[in-house]
Write a sequence for this structure.
C-alpha cells in the first residue's frame, strides 16, 4: 500500500522547480514540505528533475499569455508530442519514487488522467 500520494500536474506559470509535483495526502505534505513540492525535495534523479522543468517550460508555451482565452498556439501534433513526452516523464517519476508513492498524472489540458 502506498504511503505518499502525489500528483504530477503542470501548473500555468510559477517556478518550474515547484509547479509540477503536488502532495495529495497529509503524509506526502509532511514528508515533502507542503502542497507544492520542490523537485529538489524528491528522491529523484537530476535528469528527471531537468526533464520535468523542461516540460513545465514547454507547457507554458501552450497558452497565449497576451490573450489567455484565445485558442492555444500549439498544433495538434505539438499537443500529442507534449502528452507523449509528459507521460514518459510520469512513468519515470512513478518508478523513481518507488512503491511507497502512488503518483497520478492529471493531464487536465487533455482531459486525461494516468495512474
Amino acid at each position: 500500500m502506498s504511503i505518499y500520494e502525489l500528483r504530477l500536474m503542470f501548473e500555468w506559470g510559477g517556478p518550474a522547480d515547484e509547479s509540477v509535483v503536488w502532495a495529495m495526502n497529509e503524509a506526502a505534505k509532511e514528508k515533502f514540505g507542503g502542497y507544492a513540492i520542490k523537485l529538489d525535495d524528491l528522491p529523484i534523479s537530476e535528469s528527471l528533475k531537468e526533464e520535468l522543468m523542461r516540460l513545465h517550460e514547454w507547457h507554458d508555451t501552450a497558452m497565449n499569455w497576451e490573450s489567455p482565452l484565445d485558442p492555444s498556439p500549439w498544433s495538434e501534433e505539438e499537443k500529442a508530442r507534449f502528452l507523449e513526452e509528459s507521460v514518459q516523464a510520469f512513468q519515470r517519476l512513478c518508478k523513481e519514487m518507488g512503491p511507497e508513492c502512488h503518483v497520478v498524472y492529471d493531464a487536465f489540458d487533455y482531459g486525461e488522467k494516468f495512474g
About this structure: Strands lie at 4-8, 21-23, 36-37, 101-107, 112-114. The chain has three helices and five strands.
